[in-house]
Design a protein that fits this description.
single chain; about 120 residues; alpha/beta; about 45% helix; about 20% strand
Length: about 120
């Protein structure tokens, strides 16, 4: 069965590269959102297997988006992997306490990102 991933990232280049990599190498269906607010709308309307969420975004950062996802009964069960360029030791603790499925550092290798995400999402 094809996995459906929602990618929420304000960087159009990251969205494009990630979407191509996940669709080409894993055969997953990728829905993209350019902002946290758009991502929350997309998360409501799609039967998703996972969300890839950028932390550093203008207007609504990834922490706020994640809090909104967790507050909604319709989206709280969707596993979330955070996408971030900066991971500080304090962030690791915060991420673990949040209950996210995992953290994916940027930049990442487009060829191996599918395997990394499958592992983080617990898909084998």
């Amino acid at each position: 069965m094809t996995k459906r991933i929602l990618l929420i990232d304000d960087d159009p280049d990251i969205r494009a590269v990630t979407q191509v990599a996940l669709e080409k190498f894993a055969g997953w269906q990728v829905i993209t959102a350019a902002s946290g607010a758009e991502g929350l709308v997309q998360a409501q309307n799609k039967g998703l297997d996972g969300i890839l969420l950028d932390i550093s975004m203008p207007d609504m950062d990834g922490f706020s988006v994640f809090a909104n996802l967790q507050a909604n009964a319709g989206t709280r069960q969707i596993p979330v992997v955070l996408l971030t360029a900066k991971i500080l030791p304090s962030d690791r603790r915060r991420f673990a306490d949040m209950g996210v499925a995992g953290v994916m550092p940027k930049p990442f290798n487009p060829v191996t990102v599918c395997d990394q995400l499958a592992h983080l999402f617990g898909w084998g």
